[in-house]
Amino acid sequence: MAHMTPEHVHERTDAHVKPLVIFLLVMVVTIVFSFLFTEVLFDLFMQRAETKGNPVSPVQIIDEKPAGPQLQVVPGLDLRAMDAANAERLESYGWVDEGAGVAHIPIEAAVDVLLEQGLPVREEAAAAE
Using CA atoms, how far apart are residues 31 and 60, in angstroms rounded to an integer? Predict the structure, then answer.
């Protein structure tokens, strides 16, 4: 068998510098042009905004609170106020519907009335006993 020599597999010439330089110059010119174009466009928009004035947002025109639930600024205080209102209602006498004769009474009084009168019983259950 014949003696085989390893073949050299590498580039025999250097990279061509001229295409690389042209590419870099085109990139630099493109970046500079983009920067200048953006700057001119920004100045144009600013001049147009100054001549027309700033438009007023519809939200700024209406100075009223929207309907619906509002955000709680201090939820702990709101909870304490709600608990106090509920405790006041549970511990006091008052009318729910005065025309119909429906009133609310304190819980302790309701328990006493229930112990005196007992729970209502259906007629079917009373007949079975």
Answer: 41
- All residues at 6 or more sequence positions from 92 whose CB lies less than 8 Å from its CB, including other chains: 104, 106
Distance CA 123, CA 95 (A): 30
For 102, phi then psi, to 5°, come to -100, 125
Question: What is the C-alpha separation between 74 and 26, in angstroms, rounded?
Answer: 61
What pTM does this model have?
A: 0.36
Q: For the purposes of burial, counting CB atoms within 10 Å of the CB of 105, is it exposed (0-12), middle (13-18) or buried (19 or more)?
A: middle
CA atoms of 108 and 98, how far apart (whole Å): 22
Structure confidence by residue, pLDDT tens digits, 74-104: 888 999 999 999 999 999 999 989 999 999 8
